[in-house]
Structures are given as structure tokens and as C-alpha cells.
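tool_call predict_complex ligand=NAP
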Amino acid sequence: MRKVAILGSTGSIGVNALNVIRELPGRFRVVGLAAHSNSALVAEQAREFGAEVVTMFEDAASARLKKDLVGGARHAPSGVEGLCELASHPGVDVVLTSVVGGVGFAPLLAAIRAGKTVALANKEPMVMAGAQFMREAERWGARIVPVDSEPSAIFQCVQGLNPDPKAVAPLKTIRRVLLTASGGAFGSYEGDLADVTPAQAMNHPTWKMGKKITIDCATLMNKGFELIEIMNLFGLKREQVEIVIHPQSIFHSGVEFSDGSVLAQMGLPDMKLPIQYGLTFPERATRVIEPLDLVKIGTLDFKRPDFTRFPCLSLACEAARKGGGMPAVLSAADEVAVEAFIARAIRFTDIPRVVEKTMAAYTVSGGLPSFQEVVEIDAWARAKAKEHLR
Ligand SMILES: NC(=O)c1ccc[n+]([C@@H]2O[C@H](COP(=O)([O-])OP(=O)(O)OC[C@H]3O[C@@H](n4cnc5c(N)ncnc54)[C@H](OP(=O)(O)O)[C@@H]3O)[C@@H](O)[C@H]2O)c1
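tool_result ok
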């Protein structure tokens, strides 16, 4: 029985993870559950899965949960402290990080320093300080298994080569990675992007996800984040990653090896598969998703991304090239800008403007920043991005 903690259990990834766990009875025990404010759903989940520890980020939600959920589960403190407590809980084997944004930074570090296997959905911390997290994971014997569909695809292609989960030899033979993107809500939209609404941007053609990542898909920032995430996860250089638009979201990504052979991981666009693999790794369990019917799908299309129409992708590439604290600036400024767009305070096309101005105000110096420095850069970039909003 693998013992699991889910940080962000009420979101799109969290709920899907519990669906996977429900469909694979006897494989997992849910030890911990955490969310931001949806205490009613956490209470329901805790009762169904018999969670031992629960926590809500928000104080008021934490108080509500204590009233709703009496007996059984222990209540960890609210805020980041509770998330870190769950992430490093001695009774947990696998921590699924599925909160959204930079708030997942400290809990990821806590999980790594406790030597956990991290099923990583929350990509923003890996953008902010991915190389540092990988080094820390090696130091503490922790394992990071990407849950995001495309990084999971690459992980599976590489993993498939060698049964030893710690093997690094296949990584050295990667010539390049084919990182696919659906193109988001505006992949085939020909109108003026300055006029689109949050509701239009939320209308993703293939994936059903939380608000922030869906907007990030519409700007293509999400693909830029994945570029940085996979560079850190697999030790790749920018020029080893080719970003390809693939509207059907069937070819989840591929790896070309030194001899020219390309391995791809494919499947229907259903997050249950990468979540399941993240939770069962290195084993494969019974299928819980619909089988892939290639004949029914018929055609798979691929084209190059439009870097001019979607400047967030160029900004992410620039942050990847500059390195240092720049990816943390990129991530923080994007989080501020996306929130403002959802609140209808800025236009869709202002998102890259806010990010660009914030990046322009930052100078990369020295080598990789420490974790503490990344936290400071993140705070600085959020404040700067808010100035640009005004
Ligand atoms: N959805 C996908 O298919 C997908 C795919 C790949 C990667 N990801 C990544 O996975 C992460 C989660 O995405 P999502 O789509 O599942 O987001 P989502 O549906 O918006 O859910 C976010 C979850 O995090 C919780 N949360 C938010 N802020 C929190 C805080 N400060 N403390 C504790 N919990 C907090 C929310 O709780 P409340 O419900 O109480 O607000 C909710 O449970 C993101 O980093 C995203 O980029 C998602």
C-alpha cells in the first residue's frame, strides 16, 4: 500500500488523483489532504478516504473544516506551515504536489528534504528553481516524477530504456526532445487577441484543467514553463528542445536519441494516466483510462508555434537562456498578470507586456540563486509586476 498526501486535493489534478485511487482499490492509502478554501470538499474527501491529516491554507476555511470534520483526522496548521507538514509527514511515501503557483515552492522543498517521492504536477516551483530542486533531491535521496502530461511522456520514454529508476545513461543519449503543445484556446483563432475574454481563454479544446494553467495554455506560457521544467528535469539545453503544436493532444511528447530513433508516449488527453504513473512509479498498474483508438482519431497534425502572436513563449525561451533568477521572475510576473486578466483588470495581450517589463527590470547576476534568494526574487518580481499593472 503506497501512502499518499495530496496538496491541492480539490483541484482538477487533486480530484482526478482521488478518482485514480478510487479505481485502483488496495493500492493506496490517503494519509493527507490539503487545499486552499474548499473545506466542504476536503471534509467529504477525508471521510471517504479516511485521511489521517488535513489542512486548509486559509484560516477561515481551516476553522470551517474543524467544525465539519470532527474526530478521525488531525488538523495541521493553516498556511504554508500545514502544507510543509503534510509534505514531510513521516507516514507518507508519495507527495502529489497539485497546488497552483509559487505557493508550492516551500512544500516541494520540504518533501524533497524528507526524501519523499514527489509526483510533481505543480510546475511553477520547477520553473523558479528546477536545477536547485534536482540537486537537492539527489542530496536527500528524493525522487521527482513529473505528472504534467508532456514531461511525464518524456520521463516515460527515458524510463522505458532502462529498468533501473536511477539510471542516467539514457539521458546522455538524448539528442533532442519533441515537446508538444495543443495550442490552447486560441490555437486556430484568427481574431484580435486583444479583445478576447477570460471565458474564451478558458475554453481549452482538449484538456479540462484549473483556471491558471488554462490561461497559461492560451498564451503558450504553459509550454514555456514546460520547456524550463524539462530542461531542469532532464539536464537539457534550450536548443535540444523543439516545441511543436499538435492540436489533437495524442502525441504527448517524444525523445530523439543519438542514433535518430524517436520514442513517443501517446494516449488520449486524460490526466488520469500521468497522475496514475506518478503515483505508481516505477510500476505500471491496471488501465483506468479509455484505450487509444488511432483509427478513430484518424489524423495527427503538427506545426511550428507562432512566437510573434504568442510572445509569452519567446519570453519563456529568453528566461530559459538567461537562467539564474530570470525563470523565477517569469513565473511570478505571469502569476500576477494572469490573476489580473481573470479579474478583467488587464487584456489578454497585456499578460506578455507585464511579464516583459518585469523581466526587463531584472538583471541576472552570478550563478544559480539559493532557495532563499529565489524566494526574494519571487517577492520582488510580484511587486514589480503589480507596479506595471498599475
Ligand atoms: N489540471 C491539469 O490538467 C494540469 C496538468 C498539468 C499540470 N498541472 C499543474 O498542476 C497544478 C494544479 O493545477 P490544477 O489545474 O489542478 O489547478 P486547480 O484546479 O485550480 O486546483 C488548484 C488546487 O490547489 C489548491 N490551492 C490553491 N492555492 C492553494 C494554497 N495557497 N494552499 C493550498 N492549496 C491551494 C486549490 O484549493 P481550493 O479548491 O480550496 O481553492 C485546489 O485544490 C498547477 O501548477 C498546474 O500548472 C495541472
